[in-house]
Amino acid sequence: MPPWLSQLIYLQQSESESYLSKLIQLATVSHDNKPRVRTVVFRGWSDSFDMKIYTDKRSAKIIELKDNNNVEACWFLPNSSCQFRFRGTTTIDCDKETWELLDEKSKSMWSWPSPGNKFEPNNNLNFLPNKDTNPIDNYVLLKINIDYVDQLILDKPVHFRRRWIKKREWIEERINP
Ligand SMILES: Cc1cc2nc3c(=O)[nH]c(=O)nc-3n(C[C@H](O)[C@H](O)[C@H](O)COP(=O)(O)O)c2cc1C
Question: Which residues lie closer than 8 Å to 148 by C-beta, 6 or more apart?
Answer without folding.
Answer: 86, 87, 88, 163, 164, 165, 166
